[in-house]
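Bump. Still looking for Rhodopsin domain-containing protein C-alpha cells.
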Amino acid sequence: MATPPTPLDPTYAGENSGPHVVASIIIVASLSTLFAAARLYVRLHIVRKFQFDDYMIVLSVVCSWMSVGFSTAAVHSGSGRHIQTLSGKQISGAIQFTLFGFVPGILSYVLPKMTVVTLLARLLNPSRWHLVWLWSMCIICLITMMGSVAIAFAQCQPTKSQWDLSVKPDFCWSKWILVKYSWGSCAFSAFVDLYLSIYPAVVLYKIQLPRRKKIGLSIALGVGSISTVVAIYKITVLKGLASPDFTFDSCNLTIWTIVEGSVIIIAACIPLLQPLLEKIRKRSWSSNRKSQSLYLTPKNASGHHKGYADVELSNDKSRIRKARRQFDMESVLETRNYDDHLGAQPVPAGSQERILEEDETGLVTQTSRRQIQNKNIPPDPHNGIHRTDEIRISYAEDNGSTSNSHRHQDSWS
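Sorry for the wait, here they are.
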C-alpha cells in the first residue's frame, strides 16, 4: 500500500466510484437500521422484555454506522479514485480511513451471529453439546476475523508506513498473506451463516407442525442464508487488499463488508417481528371494520353515524338473557314456597315458560331482521312481550282448635 504507484492510462484517470460507494452503504445500513428499530419496538413496547441479543443488535447497528462513517471519510479523502491521481495527503487519508473502517465493519456481521445463536437456543432448545458447538463457531469466527485486522495493521512496521509514502518501512510481509488468510476466515464465516440458516429447518422438519407453518418458520429463521451468498462473493473481491491501486480496487470490499453486516442484522430481526405484524394487521382490520360500519349505517341529527342494527341486536340479546334469568328465578321461588299443608300450588317451571322464551326469541329475531332490512326505522324500545302475573297467597289462622280455623285469601293482580 505504500508502494509508489505505477503510471496510469489517461483514459481511466477520471474514474470515481466514491459516490456510488457512499450511496450504497448508506442505503443498506439504513435498511438494516429500520429492521433493528422495529425489533426494538417489539421488545420494548409490545413484549416489554429486553435481553442479551437485543443489546448485541444495537451494538451491531452502531458498528455498521461507524463503518459507514469511516468509509465516507475515506471517500472524501480520495477513496474511489485511482491512487495515481491523488496527492500524498489524499492517499494517506483514504488508506487510513479504509483500514480503520474494516474493524467495525467486521464486528457488524460477526456480532449478529451471536444474536442468532441466542435466538435459536431460546426457540429450538438444543442439547448442551450442540449449544456449545454453536457458540464455539461464533467465537472462532470472531477471533479469525479480528486476526485478519491484526495482520492488516501489523504487516508493515511501522504501521504508518502503510499509508504514508514519506515513511520508509523497516520490513513488510507479502500482501498476499493477508489476502489468503482473509479467504479462509471469510469462508468460515460463510459456513457459520449457512449452518445457522439450515439448522432451524432440520429441527422444524422433525417437529409435528402443519407444513405451512414449518415452511414459514424455516424461511423466517433461514434468511441468514443470503449472507452466505454475500460472504462467498466477498471472497472474490478480497484481492483488492493486495492491489497497488488500493484506493480504487478496495471499494467493492468496503461495500460488500457493510452489505454482509446489514443482511445478517435483518436476518436476526425478522423472526421477532411477528407481534408487530399482528398489531398492524389487527389495526388495519379494525379500521376496515369501522369504515364498513360507518358506510352502511345512517347518520342521526347530530351528524354522527349510528348503527341501528348492531345496537338493536345487542339489546335483543340482553333482553333474552334478562327474561330467562327472571323466569328461572320465579320458578325457583315458587317451588321453594310450595307447602302441602297450606294448599298452595306451585307454578310449573316447565314447558309454558320455555315456550314463552321461544316466542320472545322469535319475535325479537323478526324485529331485528325488519330493522336490518329497513335501516331508516329507529329501534322501538317498546317491542317485546309484556307479562302480567297474578299472585294468590292463602294463609290460615289457628286460634287453638282446628274447628274454628278460618282461611283467608287475598289476591293482587
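The chain has two domains: 15-281, 308-398+407-412.

Edit: fixed formatting.
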